[in-house]
Design goal:
The structure is a homodimer.
Chain A lengths: L3 H8 L3 H8 L8 H14 L5 H8 L4 E6 L5 H16 L3 E6 L4 H13 L4 E5 L6 H16 L3 E5 L7 E5 L1 H14 L5 E6 L4 H16 L6 E4 L4 H7 L8 E4 L2 H13 L9 E3 L16 E3 L2 H14 L6 E4 L2 E3 L9
Parallel strand pairs in A: 1-2, 1-3, 3-4, 4-5, 5-11, 6-7, 6-8, 8-9
Antiparallel strand pairs in A: 10-12
Helix pairs in contact in A: 1-2, 1-3, 2-3, 5-12, 6-7, 8-9, 10-11
Chain A binds a DNA duplex through helix 2 and helix 4.
DNA sequence: GCACACTGGGAAACCGTTTTCCGGGAGGTC
DNA sequence: GACCTCCCGGAAAACGGTTTCCCAGTGTGC
């Protein structure tokens, strides 16, 4: 393994000079020496040891992103947005996937802390468990105490800079739009009650429906994924319109109805949430609430890096997008 | 920032002892001292500095994965498989996305080399450009010379351990299946000619069709993504069966036909390649060639880590999956 | 009772950089 | 010509750990 010392020796200069030439320094180096060093580095195939640099500089050029599941397009989009932003800043990205295990999330923060990453992005729903949240927050405090920066996409529960999608308001707006089309009997494929994202969307929807004076929707809990939507779709009773708290679940529901010969939107209308790009060619096209996921990821990174004294919480509105999966009953 | 020295001081022991207690060592430490050290570490919120450890140990516990685009489910699945395997080995993962820029890929390898990551996984199609390939290979050689391990998912062109999907053979098998259903006039949505994955699949398909004595398919080049499939689908002439070289393109083609009132599979049949999980609820269900993407990612990691003297190339077969998007003309 | 492993603790070298500090020489000013 | 700046090169001290020695103390075997 070729070190800076090898390069310096071959070029006949000191370590200091070699370092100044090869890794950006404020100090100038004479052009003759500079050329010698560059030549030597090239000949030897020198590659600076980032671990040593991180140690010496006291700061790394790596950030960490923690998501639930990369194969879920929601998180992939968030991560992609953040990664593009990071790459614009010349930062490398360490990605951790927790597969929805909160313990893993805490462990990852600890590990990223050990790595002295410059910032940590937590993307993914909080769970409604105060002890878990407290432990995660504690871990984050330790990390921040040692100079780390943190941002979160999701619920504002951790006391850090947060990009907070308007889950409640978005679902409520969707509810009003659907009611405006003449629907009166609703059901909600609600996902797991302890997942805050799922719970907020469900609550926003149900509350809005009740405020409109319509009958309270039937709420069906279940997993937050495609199969969860598929299974829950069988328990929607006589609802004319079904709201799945995310697009992936909605697609599962569509599949279930199709298999049972229930036509969408003629027999039942279906709406989702997120507006996942990969699903845009779904048939029928899915009514949903669009979130600018990539922007949110990028914004979270900016927040983390710029982080001032005060904690910033940025709310992101969702946009109701009506498509063919919902019937107009008027 | 609390260091090992702080812990040692607080516990009243030497640096050596503290190190031995907190970070796995072969040496034993008496239980009294051990307890004191652990207590001190806990009180102070000590977190070992991985950069320092990497430097001192000469080996990091990080691996690197380079993919084209995380929001493409193909790469997300590959990355996910590799990440699960990595997490099983207690390794952290740095992910880089190149967005199909070969220069970025080379730059990433250099960066990961600098990071002294334990292994690098290159996931994603090679391009048919010998100079690029040579430069990438050169970068890899440097990295390997300094002890790095490399594996690749895709074409076996880099002289490293490779998990090679049977693109050519899979497409050929698909061609024979489709011909077996009575189709005779084919078109191929071929993607970009310089992308080896696209080119191999196209060649396998076309060759198989010719070998069956059927008319040579019309080949339409274009981008490798959904919009590429959408655009190319308009130029398929009188073909009764269209093969898109990946599922995402096939979905684009389905969308194009739908918009133009062309029924699938009654008017035209469509097949893809990859069997992307997120698209399984597409209507009509997509005929495709299934690749075990997660397994392939995991296997690539294993290959990289286990890497012996000789270069291993593991071929992965694809399985033809006939679904409703293809009509049976018999 | 004595040589002898063996155990567990500490001092210090080392990993590969960055950066501070020091010094020598060139050039400018009066 | 003396003095003062710059400018640039090098020696050496960090950075935060790991690990190799070395050493004192404690059983053990005969």
């Amino acid at each position: 393994m070729v070190t800076l010392e090898d390069v310096a020796k071959q070029a006949g200069v000191s370590l200091a000079t070699a370092s100044r030439v090869l890794n950006g320094s404020t100090r100038q180096v004479g052009s003759a020496l500079r050329a010698r060093v560059e030549l030597a580095a090239d000949e030897l195939g020198y590659r600076a040891n980032s671990a040593a640099q991180t140690l010496a500089r006291g700061a790394s050029n790596v950030i960490g992103i923690v998501v639930h599941d990369l194969t879920d397009p929601y998180f992939a989009a968030l991560a992609d947005g953040a990664m593009r932003a990071a790459s614009g800043e010349g930062l490398l990205v360490m990605v951790g996937t927790t597969h929805r295990d909160p313990e893993q999330e805490i462990a990852y923060v600890a590990t990223l802390h050990a790595q002295r990453v410059r910032a940590v992005l937590l993307a993914g729903s909080r769970v409604a468990d105060e002890r878990i949240t407290a432990r995660l927050a504690g871990e984050l405090v330790k990390y921040q105490a040692s100079g780390g920066r943190v941002a979160c996409v999701g619920q504002d529960l951790l006391g850090v800079d947060t990009v907070a999608p308007a889950n409640y308001e978005g679902a409520a707006a969707l509810a009003r739009s659907l009611a405006g089309l003449g629907h009166t009997r609703f059901a909600v494929l609600a996902g797991p009650p302890h997942l805050m994202t799922a719970a907020d969307r469900c609550a926003g929807f149900v509350t809005a429906i009740k405020e409109l004076g319509l009958p309270e929707p039937r709420v069906v809990a279940g997993p937050f994924d495609r199969d969860g939507g598929y299974a829950a779709a069988r328990q929607t009773g006589d609802a004319t319109c079904v709201f799945a708290v995310n697009d992936v679940m909605a697609v599962g529901a569509l599949a279930a109805y199709r298999e049972h010969g229930i036509r969408v939107p003629q027999d039942v209308s279906v709406a989702g949430f997120d507006d996942i790009a990969t699903l845009r060619d779904q048939v029928p096209a899915l009514t949903t609430v669009r979130l600018p996921l990539k922007d949110m990821g990028a914004r979270a990174l900016e927040l983390a890096l710029s982080g001032g004294e005060s904690v910033v919480v940025e709310h992101v509105a969702g946009e109701v997008v009506l498509r063919e999966s919902v019937a107009d009953l008027r």
